[in-house]
Amino acid sequence: MLKTELERRFGVVKTVMWREKEFYLVTVSAVRDCQVLVTKGLHHYEMINPKDQSESKFVELFFCLPNYWSEKDLQNNEWAYSILDQLMTYVVDNKTWFGDGHTLQMSLNKGPLSWSLKQSHCMLSTPILLREELTTINLENKQVSFLSIVPLFRQEFQYKQAYGTNMLLELLEQHQVTERLDGFRTNLAKSRWRRIFG
User: Fold this and answer.
1) C-beta separation of 124 from 147 below 8 A
2) Rounded to two decimals, what is the model's pTM?
3) Which phi and psi (to 5°) does residue 36 adopt?
4) Sequence spans of domains, the chain
5) H-type alpha helices, 134-164
C-alpha cells in the first residue's frame, strides 16, 4: 500500500480530501523545508512508452509545497489538487503515458496557474530537490517512480521547445530552481525571449 510505504520513509502521512478524492500529504523533513502532496492510485495504471520501454511504467505524481502551507492553505489553493487530478484523469482516460520532461499547458486562457503562481505551464520531472527521499519504491511487485510537477513560465516552456529539456534543466539548475513551489520565482527566460515571443 502506497501510504504504508510513505509512512516507512517519512513517518506521519495525512490523507486529505478534495472533491471526494484522496491525496496524501507528507512532511519530508525540516532540512528540506517542504511537504509533498501526492496522488493516490495512479500506479495502478500501467503506462507504456511506445518509443522507450525502459521508461517507468508505474508512477505517482506530486507537488513539492513549502512547509508553511497548511491544509487550510491547500483549501485556498485548489489548483494544486485540480492539476494533479487533471493529469491523473488525462493519462488514464487517453491510455497514454507521462515521462520525465513532458510539458503541458495547465492554465485556462493561457493565464497563470493561480492567483499565487504566475506560471502557466507545468513540466513533469524526476525529483530534483527530493531525489534522495523519493526514489523508486517496490509496491505490489511494481517499481513505482515519482514525477514532480514543476511550474514553468510561458517563455521557459518556449525555451524548452527551442533548445530541449536538458538545456532548460541546466537553466533551472544555474538558478537553483527545483520542484519546490516558489510564488516569488522570476521568469528565467523572459529577457532572452522577450523580443521574439513578447
Assistant:
1) yes
2) 0.88
3) -125, 130
4) 2-197
5) 154-163
